[in-house]
Design a protein that fits this description.
It contains five helices and no strands. It is an all-alpha fold. The protein is elongated. The chain starts with a helix and ends with a helix.
Length: about 140
């Protein structure tokens, strides 16, 4: 096989891989919305009187998955929000009203990002979101 054939074959493989990632990216948004729904269901436990520590553990588990998957599919803002939420929960018990409101704000922002299909870093909107969450979690 000549070098031109190898290059063409390599380019074909790259094109196939890029097409596969694009297809997965489209399905990732649906997965993100499912994860947000799961977060909202878990969060409903707070209002139902469920043990807050158990809720936070479950929220952290889902947020950890969201954080890990977002950037892989071109949703870097989702990864940033998920990381902020995970870090915040890990850094304390998060039982006060103010602390639980910050956790809930993360969930609502993830919902907004998913519903509006904000991919990448989210541009200026994403920068404002990340700055707002950083200010809340200090």
């Amino acid at each position: 096989m000549g070098s031109a054939e190898k290059a063409s074959s390599f380019e074909d493989m790259v094109a196939q891989a890029e097409a596969a990632v694009a297809a997965l990216r489209d399905s990732y948004r649906a997965q993100l919305l499912e994860d947000v729904d799961a977060l909202l269901q878990v969060w409903a436990g707070v209002e139902a009187g469920r043990d807050i520590a158990a809720v936070m553990k479950d929220v952290h588990a889902i947020a950890h998955n969201v954080k890990g998957q977002g950037g892989s599919f071109g949703y870097d803002l989702v990864t940033s929000i998920g990381a902020s939420l995970c870090d915040y929960i890990r850094s304390g018990e998060r039982c006060s009203v103010d602390e639980t409101n910050i956790v809930h704000a993360h969930i609502k922002i993830l919902k907004m990002v998913g519903e509006n299909d904000i991919s990448g870093t989210g541009g200026e909107t994403g920068e404002r979101i990340v700055a707002k969450l950083a200010a809340l979690t200090r």
